[in-house]
Amino acid sequence: MSKGHLLPLCVKEDLKQVEDELTRVVSSKEGKLAEAALTTLKAGGKRLRPILVLLAGMINLYDASKLIHAAVAVELVHTASLIHDDVLDGADTRRGSPTINAAWNKKTAVSAGDYLFGIAFEILSKLDNPYLMKVMSEAVLALSVGELHQMRTRYSLNQTMDDYLAKIKSKTAVLFSTACLIGATLSEAKKVEIEALGRYGENLGMAFQIYDDVLDISGDKKVLGKPIGIDLKDGMVTMPVFLALKETPQRAYLQNVVENVNLTEEEIKKAIEIIEATSAIKETKRRAKGFVEKALGAIELIENDDVRGSLCSIGEFVIDRYH
Amino acid sequence: MSKGHLLPLCVKEDLKQVEDELTRVVSSKEGKLAEAALTTLKAGGKRLRPILVLLAGMINLYDASKLIHAAVAVELVHTASLIHDDVLDGADTRRGSPTINAAWNKKTAVSAGDYLFGIAFEILSKLDNPYLMKVMSEAVLALSVGELHQMRTRYSLNQTMDDYLAKIKSKTAVLFSTACLIGATLSEAKKVEIEALGRYGENLGMAFQIYDDVLDISGDKKVLGKPIGIDLKDGMVTMPVFLALKETPQRAYLQNVVENVNLTEEEIKKAIEIIEATSAIKETKRRAKGFVEKALGAIELIENDDVRGSLCSIGEFVIDRYH
Prior knowledge:
Two copies of one chain form a homodimer.
Chain A: H1 9-27, H2 31-41, H3 48-56, H4 64-89, E1 93-94, E2 97-98, H5 100-103, H6 106-125, H7 130-152, H8 161-186, H9 191-218, H10 221-224, H11 230-233, H12 239-247, H13 251-259, H14 265-276, H15 280-298, H16 305-318
Antiparallel strand pairs in A: 1-2
């Protein structure tokens, strides 16, 4: 996260330990799997989920050691899901680095994902709290449903905006919520605060994914570190596409682009122009902002000003990334 | 398991509930994943791992409800690992039924495996015992290491018998041991008994896998429900192959078969004849029996005669399957 200066000092410090611990636990076991898994782990994630664990973990007590382990487990589950996602998408690169599929093969990617799931649950089980395992299991379940949902709805307009929202909830929002629930639970926060944090995480995750989908269409390639239009190329029907289809006079062309599995760069460029000529991007950003507002509304009752301030900053960051 | 009459009545009864519960929990969530996962789940496994959970769960107290849930979780982890294994092996059939790869595609198989891992951990987390989660996480980790180990050593003689033993420990023995540890823990057995059951499970699992590898070479196709020589075709170097290579005058031919990725039926048949002309099968069975003896030795201290008797029967079944 680039706006790290908005985080409390202890979170910034402990985030370094999370980073070291991630490398250590992944490297500690099987050589080849460790090597493969580390490439994805080190491909430059923003570590938003560990940040959420640590911040939520400040609400009441702050048990750094437990929180660091929990943050590591959450990031490992996220990374495992990215690795399996790349198998499903047949993706060759992630943030400019080769995926495990590309550098090794799909088989290594399947095992490497399982390996990280195993380490994550092993770490979490040592925290001796069945509730943490329960919410994490539910997150893994949601991720698998989200993965398949995403794959099955590619290149297809036979889906609604509600399908899209359900998909991004499974794929992204549930793990954001889980990160918050785990942190707040370890902090021994009040039940009402834990629930509030859960709602914050879920809405933040929705906003995050929606804004990610915006960036794929209107982002800056250099700032993003990846080309734009990837989702279109992969047949993902995202919110800007849904909204543009409703409004554009070039609906037939855009429909065709969505359903086409072999798009040229030229066709992607034209589709982006069509979307940008509508109010879809603006409206999508407005809806993403709406989710952030719901997220911030959920944490109004949090008494710890430091935590609430940082959670607000993250909300702003999510819908203002790379402007 | 065909020798079900050797099981105590309560285990036989509860095994039916495990079966119903397996179907119920897998069907309860996402439609497509459930449908895919059920094909593998229903492909006719022997449910040895659930049996071990239930039997070990009889040592002291017998809490049927908890044990049934735990048995379901263990079988789901096993099934998830089979599904991912089939992706890694590119297998088209399992026990005569099409694999998820074949009936759907590899992508669905990756998600279906993750889906079952998620359900398994969700169920286990409800049993409110972090130790169960810890041993299950370690099993998932071992399975992922075993999966990759198996894939990396295919078609290669650059491995030792110790490598083979380490691989089958990760791939099979750890989950057998886990099933026993979970059952005995839920039974609130004494620590020394829980540990004894763990050693029993591990050694039983070693024997089971070794005997499985024997059946691939000298089994009866009709009884097995699958062709023999599959492991050879897939480049798996199993104990009978290791032993035959040491003894046969046709070492060069057999080496070539192992390293050949495109074997004909004729070549497989000849390789099997070469192996059968040595003492390899007999010696492999002897070693499998040695593991069963270690397994039975471990449970001598178990006071519950019913449980010990059934565990002994399973030991005999494992090395005497289909004679």
